[in-house]
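REVIEWER CHECKLIST
Item 1: Sequence provided? yes
Item 2: Single chain? yes
Item 3: Sequence as submitted:
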Amino acid sequence: MRVISGEKRGLPLKAVPGTQTRPTTDKVKESIFNIIGPYFTGGLVLDLYAGSGGLGIEALSRGAEKAIFVDQNRKAVETVKGNLEQCQYTEKAEVYRNDATRALKALLKREITFSYIFLDPPYAKQNLVNEISIVLDHNLLHSDGKIVCEHATSVSLPDEVGLGSKIRSDTYGDTTITIYTYK
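Item 4: Structure as written out by the authors:
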């Protein structure tokens, strides 16, 4: 696992020890960023099920201004912090150990909006429709921002969720990437 492109291109990233997390493959990560825009000029990113932090770190490497990483697994949080140090991005990041829904509710109090939100929950614990609804109904996403969901191919997400619409869905083996934005 590595940073695919940008200023930290080629830098290796550590995976979370054990089998509780499923890192996004380099092929899928590269596809995600080819879809949403290969490079950014600023913007705030939320990596909600951070795991190793690969998606948020990739966004930082490609020009995002700041990223917030959230995972409820202690080992994942430690891995994200280590990967951020490896990439020298600790000043551009906040890392929290929290449940996804609680983290979203805490972010509501800060009155911030994200340019990109990555939702890559463990396949067995997906609550994507509810989380997308919270994000969109409470304006956590910038008006032209995107929510990127990584999920099992067997999971079918609706064309519309609250104030949002699915704009794209692509499958890579047993993984599907579905992207939402405001209607």
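Item 5: Key structural point noted by reviewer: The two ends are 35 Å apart (CA to CA).
Item 6: Recommendation: ____
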